[in-house]
Amino acid sequence: MPEDMRVAPHNVVAAYVERDAALAARERLLQEGVDEGSISIDARADALMVADAEMRQEADGLVGGPGLVATESQSKGAGAGFLIAGAIGAAIGLAIGAIVFDSTFGLIVCAIVGAVAGAIFGGTAGGFVRSRTKEKPRRSLQGYNVALGVHSDSADSVDRAEAILKATAPSRLERFNRGDTPHQVPLDPSG
């Protein structure tokens, strides 16, 4: 976390796409008795914390090898594409081999060449198709505009604020204690 972040011992930060949703969440916190002085909206520190948490989550999901780095979703797509297109390539290679060659060796070579070509194409295409921007939207900072934080000396206060914020369907919800790494609070997928 950046050094300029001034945080309380207990913190929860929610990210919202719409400013109106963040303002409504703030009102709900106030109605439920959360101290107005512990609530922040659009604080640079909160926005940085949420952005840092998402970058850390993305980095944790990276898969790498010699000369290759991909997100978890890209590697899953590449694996599926590799298998499917590899099988299709083998079938096409086998069909071409049957037309061109009379020998079993020719059939096998054509099937192998077709499988390799299909696997390379399918792995590459599958990685692109399953890139994060093409996936079903997930709770993240993609397009988020407003960060709302609750910062307190009391863990109970922040526990209560977390439950209230969770019910307001934020894009993302992060919880942390001063000096700790933030962790994402699971949200209801239908929210």
Structural class: alpha+beta
CATH class of the largest domain: Alpha Beta
CATH names the topology of the largest domain as Alpha-Beta Plaits
Percentage beta strand:
15-25%
Q: Identify the CATH architecture of the largest domain.
A: 2-Layer Sandwich
Terminal Cα separation, in Å?
Answer: 28 Å
The number of helical runs is: 5
What topology, given as strand order, has the largest sheet? 2-5-1-6-7
Shape: rod-shaped
Give, in order, the helices and strands: EHEHEEHHEHEE
Largest sheet entry: 5 strands, antiparallel
Secondary structure: helix percent: 40-55%
Describe the structure in your own words:
The protein folds into 2 domains: 10-60 and 140-181, Alpha-Beta Plaits (2-Layer Sandwich); 72-130, no CATH class. Helix 3 (72-100) packs antiparallel against helix 4. The model is unreliable at 1-5 and 133-142 (pLDDT under 50). It is built from 5 helices and 7 strands. The chain is 51% helix and 16% strand. It is an alpha+beta fold. The strands form 2 sheets. Strands 2-5-1-6-7 form a 5-stranded antiparallel beta sheet, sandwiched between helices. The chain has helices at residues 19-31, 44-60, 72-100, 104-129, 155-166, and strands at residues 10-16, 39-41, 63-65, 68-70, 146-152, 172-177, 183-184. It is rod-shaped, with a radius of gyration of 25 Å. A hairpin with a 5-residue loop joins strand 6 and strand 7 (183-184).
